[in-house]
TrEMBL record, chains A, B, C:
It is an enzyme of class 2 (transferase). GO terms for molecular function: amino acid binding; aspartate carbamoyltransferase activity. It comes from Desulfosarcina ovata subsp. ovata. It catalyses: carbamoyl phosphate + L-aspartate = N-carbamoyl-L-aspartate + phosphate + H(+). Belongs to the aspartate/ornithine carbamoyltransferase superfamily. ATCase family. The keyword Oxidoreductase does not apply. The lineage of its organism: Bacteria, Pseudomonadati, Thermodesulfobacteriota, Desulfobacteria, Desulfobacterales. L-aspartate binds at residues 89, 171, 233. Residues 8-149 form the Aspartate/ornithine carbamoyltransferase carbamoyl-P binding domain. This is Aspartate carbamoyltransferase.
Length: 311, 311, 311
């Protein structure tokens, strides 16, 4: 295998089709290995990952830390990095990053400010992986989403996907949209209340990359036609009027009735955590893939850590 | 050895006499191994324990994590699981548990709500160990208490034990009472201020299991007669009137005078942390076993992790 | 090598010249090993370090934890030890320490009260390393500082060092002053605003040990004459009047102009984090050693852990 060309994982746009295939094939290997002969159980023995979470996200942190441990590596971790950072004593992110270079072999960084991971990567000699930077990106989430889609369909040419819910503030759907442009024949339906519409920058990017998209406000118009329903949570804070929220949220619930209308071959995704936008009764439907999707995060993160550190 | 029959450790009542013997014999092995040839040093290599503490308890967490590490396993940990949970984003404990199933091989859960660990175990494919659930149970504490008693006496038939202090709200003494019914010839004295009396459910359980018990308010009536004095802390919050508290607390201190009145073969236990209910001067008395008791927690937790994970 | 004579690392004064040489030679070995054949990669396999931080200090904690992991050891950790301690439930530091003795092989303790680490070491059967105790000491910082100086100069006889900034409350410069007395021919210039002067106890200690020192308020009088400029941060809280602070702080900045006035062979140190007392432009100057200094903390801590635990 050719050496992995990336030094850091900062944003979805770094990944072209070849690179995606490399990551996904490696994730396949990791998945097989975990229930198989554990050839990778000590692949990163002696290596240290620093989890630098400037805001807590136990789920994402655990996913990365489990990935590192499954490869035989070790972890130093904080959910409290803000104290370590400029916010506490006025230190710059650059200084913090240089210091961490002395203690670890890879940095996984969650930060509240967009662009933080990119700035850290500029001065880091060790790989930086962006685990979410504010309103910016969350590229490993996008990769695990794309991996789940690719895994579910034998070739995704002609795939129709509906992204549902909060498309304006949802980092997840934005990052996934970038990756979808790498595949041919994809069509996207953006389904959201008017206040949560997908932003213009993504639409323009899709246009430039010849990805057809259209907008809907009515979920019922869409569920029967698509191969993938990607649900997201609508946050109450987006609405001025609580009644508007109640009205809106109710329309973007994937009820069992709506699931029944879906194609037999279609899949249901959600970045989790969910609240009530997918009722529990749907969990046993074979089309529900959101727990598998979360599990795929482990394989994707194992793949990235392995590719970045075993060069 | 027959396969360990439990999939999860949720409450004391799961343990019958045979199971207790299995756990205690395995704890003996762990204790011997730690100062011996370390045959178990890599017994759980490659396995991951998730410490999910919805409320912090550094002592209990460290005891479990040390146990896992001593067996060669690895740990992902949070003292901040509430953020990860429904409380933060509205996610259900069920969803959190399913996600954790993808990242770890065993879950150790401390939760503020009684019944949480049981609910998690219902949907978990990996073992769940209850590390304390609110007013509910703390079974590994009960096991280490029972182990300490069994270890101290060559056969516990005829054992007289005094439980002293806050018996009403003390999860520890409640869980231990369940286990004591598994042994024959045990007698219990409940010694407490009137506001902190043992609850009726435990008394009824003891009656059904033919375990004689009686209540006392005067510690001096009891110390000379029993084989084990199990002290607990009386919490100020239980009393409406601070003066009542002062008066009560003073009567349930195991002073050196009271220790002198104890049988030479008797033992003193305490789940720790203590405040002043056992003065420091007592620590050097050979009957003081509370630090050994805490240490036994390590062996018991190693035993449980080993039995649950090496099936 | 003779057995390391210390059981605990509590304060700088424990180290005489021979002991410093032992620690520094071992640190040299650790440094070489990390980029070499990794002979020490499993030196502490099976050993557990407990990071007991009663106040958070992610940087120091990570440095110790990385050191332990680089030696193949494992870590149990809390940034939240105050909850575990007397402050939360009234438990004494002595009890907490005894409990930790059952879970770990070495304790690294950061505490807000001076003397805490010493008190813990009095009852601990396992080594205690002081990682900073309030206004007290931070001996591993002093060791890494001294190591950086010794490493930079081929024999430090005749070394002139300027300590700049907050000398009154800066634990770092106080601890380093103790160690400097172990070397011959050292001269110290204390450069600070009048409100942040070095305390009398240190000056008396230097006098007793024949170490010449003098005080300055003007940094420009000093920079050209010394071999080492040790910068520290001046904290706003020390000043009653914000304007006084602004005036003072401005005078203790190591500007590029001042750096240009320094000897070509001199070095610039800082315990980090810095705010603006060393501008970023200085970082690329070959005399800037503060990032190397932080990195040296890893080697020193690996050396101490190794020396304490492999006896």
């Amino acid at each position: 295998m050719a050496a992995f060309p990336l030094n850091h994982v900062i944003e979805s746009q770094q990944f072209d089709r070849d690179l995606l295939e490399t990551v996904f094939r490696t994730a396949d290997q990791m998945k097989a290995d975990l229930s198989g002969e554990r050839r990778f159980a000590k692949a990163l023995e002696g290596r240290i990952m620093a989890s630098l979470f400037y805001e807590p996200s136990t789920r994402t942190r655990f996913s990365f830390e489990s990935a590192m441990l499954r490869l035989g590596g070790a972890v130093i971790t904080t959910e409290n990095a803000r104290e370590f950072s400029s916010a506490a004593k006025g230190e710059s992110l650059a200084d913090s990053t240089r210091i961490m270079n002395g203690y670890a072999d890879v940095i996984v960084m969650r930060h509240n400010e967009a662009g933080s991971a990119a700035r850290a990567s500029e001065i880091s000699r060790i790989p930086v992986i962006n685990a979410g930077d504010g309103a910016g990106q969350h590229p490993t989430q996008a990769l695990l989403d794309m991996y789940t889609i690719v895994d579910a369909f034998d070739g995704i040419r002609g795939l129709k996907i509906a992204m549902v819910g909060d498309l304006r503030y949802g980092r997840t759907v934005r990052s996934l949209a970038y990756l979808l442009t790498k595949y041919e024949g994809v069509e996207i339906a953006f389904v959201s209340p008017p206040v949560c519409k997908m932003e213009g920058d993504i639409k323009a990017y899709l246009d430039r990359n010849q990805v057809p998209w259209h907008e809907e406000t009515n979920l019922d118009q869409v569920v029967a036609k698509v191969d993938c329903v990607y649900m997201t949570r609508i946050q109450k804070e987006r609405f001025h009027d609580p009644e508007d929220y109640q009205a809106a949220a109710g329309q973007y619930i994937l009820t069992p009735e709506r699931v029944r209308a879906m194609k037999p071959s279609a899949i249901i995704m959600h970045p989790l955590p969910r609240v009530d936008e997918i009722p529990k009764d749907v969990d046993d439907d074979p089309r529900a893939r959101y727990f598998e999707q979360a599990q795929n995060g482990l394989y994707i993160r194992m793949a990235l850590l392995y590719l970045l550190l075993s060069k």
